[in-house]
Amino acid sequence: MFDRVRRRRAARRVRPGDGRALQPFRWWQLLGRALFHLPPSGPHEPEWSVDIRHWQDQASGSVTADLYRDGLCEARSALPAAFPVEDGRIEVAMSGFGVKRCHLVSADGSERQLSPDPRSAEGRRARFDRRHPAASSVIGVVSIALVLSGVLSLAVYLVETVSRIPPIAESVGVIAAPIDLPTWSTVASTVGAAVGSTERALRLRYHWLDAAGN
Fold first, then answer.
1. Within this chain, do residues 45 and 10 fall inside the same structural domain, yes or no?
2. Is the dihedral of CA 143, 145, 147, 150 positive or negative?
3. Which of 55, 56, 38 is nearest to 47 (CA)?
4. Looking at the 3D structure of the chain, how many domains does it have?
5. Last residue of a domain, which of 59, 82, 116?
6. Do 105 and 13 share a structural domain?
């Protein structure tokens, strides 16, 4: 039920596009733009593209995505978005670290992730994964470890902070961290968690721990 309500709200945010042509991805847009494509599934099927200018839009308080059909702007929506297409809908969502979802959801419920543009940051990460799968796996494991380190650091801090509240301190005492970590270690853990979550976002991997650890 919650998913249906969420999809209806996303569908209401969709507005008609202005028909402008899709601009090619430029190298200087690596940090502020994401571009995904859905190639035609048949000879008479359109090519869909989703263009997200997240750094440019965040200044206005919301991030929008543009849907292109055969290179022309078909629709626009604030995120999260659910663009209706012939055989289903294209769902787009972002986290604080990048795109966390850009999938075609067919009428039968099956999902297919759109392909990142080869020149985008997501596309470069996908190419690295194809060319160097072993190294890519190691980086993936390291990114998870960095996120978990940030979660653990935050959990220890919260437990100690809550235990210092007078009624709780009188009841159970102050629960101090087993190791008194220096400030630089806490900062490094926070930065590491952000780096790990950003790397995961380049692969459209997202878990609530990514937000919890930062």
1. yes
2. negative
3. 38
4. 2
5. 116
6. yes
Kindly give the confidence (pLDDT) of every residue in the chain, 214 residues in length, as a single tens digit, with 9 standing for 90 and above. 556 667 777 777 899 999 999 999 999 999 999 999 998 877 888 999 999 998 765 555 578 999 999 999 999 999 999 999 988 999 999 888 889 999 999 988 899 999 999 999 999 999 999 999 999 999 999 998 988 888 888 777 777 777 778 777 667 766 766 666 677 777 788 888 888 888 888 998 876 555 544 5
Using DSSP, state whether 193 is helix, strand or coil.
Answer: helix
Residues 85 and 16 in one domain: yes
Of 107, 99, 69, 82, nearest in space to 15 by CA: 82
180: enclosing H helix or E strand: none
- Domain with 166, as residue range(s), is 132-212
The verdict on whether omega for the bond into residue 40 sits within 30 degrees of 0, i.e. cis, is no
Cα three-residue angle 142-148-151, rounded to 5 degrees:
150
**What is the C-alpha to C-alpha distance for residues 42 and 147, in angstroms, rounded to an integer?**
41
What's the rounded Cα separation, in Å, for the pair 98 and 93?
9
